[in-house]
Amino acid sequence: MTTTQQIGSAKDLMHLVHKYLPADRASLVENALNYAIKAHDGQTRDSGEQFIVHPIATAFRLAEMRLDVTTIQAALLHDVIEDCGISFKALESEFGTEVAKLVDGVTKLKRLDMISEDGAMMKQIATPEATRAASLRKMLVAMAEDVRVVLIKLADRLHNMETLGHLPTPKQQRISRETLDIYSPLAHRLGMNDIKWQLEDQAFRYLLPRQYKSISRLVNRKRAEREIYTEAAVKAISDPLGKAGIKCSVDGRAKHLYSTYNKLQRYERMGRKFDEIYDLIAVRVVTESVADCYGALGVVHSKWRPVPGQFDDYIASPKENMYQSLHTSVRGPGNYPIEVQIRTQDMHDVAEEGVASHWIYKEGEDGSPKVDNFETKMSWLRQLLDWQREVSGDDEYLATVRTDILQDQVFVYTPKGDVKDLPAGATPIDFAYRIHTDLGHNTVGAIVNGKLTALNTPLNNGDVVEIRSARIPRGPSLDWLNTDLGYLITGSAQTKVKQWFRKQERHSNVRRGNDLLKKELRRLGLKYNEKEIVASLDYDDIDDLSEAIGTGQISVARVADTLNPTPHEVFKPKVQHGKPPTDQTRGLIVMGEPGLLTKIAKCCSPVYGDEITGYLTRGRGVTVHRQNCTILRDTEDSDRHVPVAWGHYETTYASRLQIKAFDRVGLIRDITNVVSSENVNIHSLTSDEDEKTNACTVSLTVYTTGVEQLSRLFSRVETIPGVDSVFRVSEVASL
Fold it and tell me: Known catalytic residue: 30?
């Protein structure tokens, strides 16, 4: 960038600032601008332009939102600590503590520090991923204390995304993935939809370039036709609104590229056809009052037929990010479906700028604040500080933020009418932990909308949830940490359960973990001695491993999977990738004897993931057994044992299961429903009943992709009412 262009950019910023700030306040911005120009003198970006362009662009974006002097100053200075060697104290001395704290909040960590036992600071060897996680955590905690930190960071990230083309492809994709996972959801949660969609479209461009170009061509190809239709739709509804005495503005807009792509994906999953023109259109009506919003809704519905089940009132029930609007889908001109949004001008400002539209961060002539309940609306920010105290690891902290804050939310009610927001898919136990930790620990039942409901049932918007707790404190169940069972979705609740188990006495944790390990190995038909198990999982002794299982630090399914090594951990064979063969034995590799006929032994029925070995039979090739197969172990001719490994194909393998249960009406139906929900095919099923005891044994043959899916299936089946146990069985057969 030339010096003339640089001055022009700085002049544009100051011209914008002078539009809404008094001269004495604007001069403070100019001081920060001059300081930043001097600090970044001689620095260039990867594009070759002067570095100062970036902080000016960041500040300009925030000035467009009419944010306060402190925020604009911090935006101009946001890289001076990180890139110019200027200290926090120097910045504080020049611009004050508030500006320095904002700049420090958006400054990335260069290294990770840890405290040694004697209290001294030690440099921690850290991977780039760990440093990025720690930097994100630092920014999120600073944001919870002053939300302006994230406003600066979002403007900073948006300009970086707009100029991402000069970076190497791997870095483009890493930054884009982080943008889509962290910054875009943050912008949504803060109600900043204008920045949200821009971040999404830019990230979409680099993460899925082929799909991005395809959607762009679709939008551009239909632009002229869409504009003609939009103009007709706007005119068709403007006249009736005017005749009804409703003062408003009506406009049409094209939907954004990433949201269009997501809609296409949803339509494909549903088997619906995407209408290339009309699904790209939304009509917006902006009125002067709330009463006019509902009046306009009546006019729209009288003019165009509403689509059943496609109406949402976010004015009466605002979203968690303060968004308010009426949404309806109607059959517009030509009987095509279009979306109509109706809101006031104030609601529109909040919809575009979100938290940035709030009075705390605005600069006005009189500076007088408006009264509203901003702190209540942004109460979720306080959870970031709570988790900072509760969660030690940076990765675990980020995982909690992703699941609990950045996912789509559902709103549920306590019996007293208090609203609690939870991530989509959250369960009554998640709800209980959100109310209070002790309530979560002692939950024994849940009543949702007046009906007794299973504790792993996902909650829906508007549900009224009442938690039943144990009279005597009993603590959580370890099953709640089993992700296959779906009891807990929120990372914060999972952390609290893990912490509870860690506090229990070691011997009870060891005993619990040992019981779980033996049960898992028994039902999977795996036989290992303690030394082999400990060595395989890199624990000092069996008690340490059992304690880790008993406290939920490591799942028993993961242990079973580790004890069944994948092929590359055993032989590291070179396999050409391709489509999986229809014949499952073609996925097997016989080491040193290529081209041999292979078949699966019926006696032990090994599945993908089992540790296996081969037995060479004259005229019949190689029969593949589990390594601990009793039939194979009893053979005397060890020369005929050959090493084999699973190939890379993910095909299906037969396993014989037995389920011990109490016979009741609907038992077989429940078993088949659970098996089917895991996408597991049932080859055969029989049942034997004992009329005296009412006990029954259900035997079935299923086809799974391996031990991991089999373990998950066992966990699900054991939750069926009446089921006592489920395990894998072998049948005696010849080699």
Answer: no
